[in-house]
Design goal:
The protein is α+β, with helices and mostly antiparallel strands and about 120 residues long. The protein has one domain: 3-Layer(aba) Sandwich (Glutaredoxin). The radius of gyration is 14 Å and the shape is globular. About 25% of the residues are buried. Bound molecules: FE2/S2 (inorganic) cluster. FE2/S2 (inorganic) cluster binds next to loops.
Length: about 120
């Protein structure tokens, strides 16, 4: 086995939110400049207020390798779903986080990864 499995308290899902900050002079987009930190804080608070703190983990990450020009790149595990979240997607993403039975496709358009 490539690693030793360990139990975690997060029985539902983990949401990884890119909060990477690049200096504007790099000329490259970065999710941190498009609201990644604020998105992470809003969703962490909403998960806690929704009573899912022990089941859902919302974390900030460095660059997830996509670097969208608009919005924030996220990854959802164990769904293995990746996508860009802007103001239009945030409510649907929260609904998925708060409902263990919700498939990612329920109101949320997170495209599968490219093969
Ligand atoms: S800066 Fe967010 S995916 Fe690269």
């Amino acid at each position: 086995m490539a690693f030793r499995p360990v139990p975690t308290p997060f029985t539902h899902r983990q949401l990884q939110i890119c909060t990477n900050q690049r200096a504007p002079e790099t000329g490259k987009p970065s999710c941190g400049r498009h609201g990644g930190v604020e998105l992470r804080e809003r969703l962490k608070r909403a998960v806690k207020e929704g009573g899912k703190r022990g089941a859902v983990q919302v974390i900030g990450t460095s660059c997830l390798g996509v670097c969208p020009a608009e919005g924030v790149m996220v990854g959802l595990l164990p769904d293995h779903a990746w996508g860009v979240v802007g103001p239009d997607e945030e409510a649907a993403l929260l609904a998925v986080l708060l409902n263990p039975e919700a498939p990612v496709g329920a109101g949320l358009s997170l495209p599968p990864p490219e093969p």
